[in-house]
Amino acid sequence: MSDPLALSTLAASVLTQGFAFLYDRLGTLLDAWAERRAAKAEEAVALPDALGGRSQDLVSDAAVTQEHLPDLAYLRGVLLAYDREPQRIEARDPEFLASLERLRDLLEQVYGCRLTFTGEAREPTGTAIRVRQELGRVSGTGTGVKATTIGTADVDVSQSATQVEQGASVTGVDVDRIG
């Protein structure tokens, strides 16, 4: 989790727009969960300028959502007053900033991607690629991620093999171009 006070340096319009987007995602996620269904891909959700201003597919992870459901529901209640009265949003309100940062942290875990506000000193909004492979005996090729191009993404590959036979290979990331 990053420092909530870092959010205090953002322009008021970025903070307000970013909050509105995150709170809307929270509502969509919890409403879908209440209807006993996992929220599916939001099919190219338009990000506000405060978060990069482009389209981004957001797919929730049901297991992560379930794990953090109590915190997500709690934050919905805590932040409700700011949703109803956006003029209350202030960069000098430490409780608001801490709650907003916690919400962003949880949504990043649920959606598996960064949600970075314009002007922040952190990686830009984008998809994370996470691969966990537990390979038994490898007699051919085991590759975690093979791609022609990886744009704005965090790539995290964890692999283990009990045995890699002679002539076989295990590769974490095989990519022609990054960025």
Features:
179 residues; single chain; 36% helix; two-stranded antiparallel sheet
Task: Give a structural overview.
- The protein is α/β, with parallel strands linked by helices and 179 residues long.
- It has two domains: 4-119, no CATH class; 127-178, no CATH class.
- It has three helices and seven strands, in the order H-E-E-H-H-E-E-E-E-E.
- The chain has helices spanning 12-34, 62-84, 94-111, and strands spanning 45-46, 55-56, 113-114, 126-138, 141-150, 153-164, 169-178.
- The chain has a three-stranded mixed beta sheet, covered by helices on one side. The protein has a two-stranded antiparallel ribbon with strand order 1-2. Strands 5-7 form a two-stranded parallel ribbon.
- Helix 1 (12-34) packs across helix 3 (94-111).
- The longest helix is centred in the N-terminal third of the chain and has 23 residues, at 12-34.
- It starts with 11 loop residues before the first helix and ends with a strand.
- The model has no long low-confidence stretch (mean pLDDT 82).
Alpha-carbon Rg, integer: 19 Å
**Strand order across the largest sheet:** 3-4-6
Distance between the ends: 25 Å
> What series of H and E elements makes up the topology?
HEEHHEEEEE
Tell me the β content: 25-35%
Report mean pLDDT, rounded to a whole number: 82
Uncertain runs: none
Largest sheet: 3 strands, mixed
Query: Quick one: overall form?
Result: elongated
How many domains in all? Answer: 2
Structural class: alpha/beta
Helicity range: 25-40%
Number of strands: 7
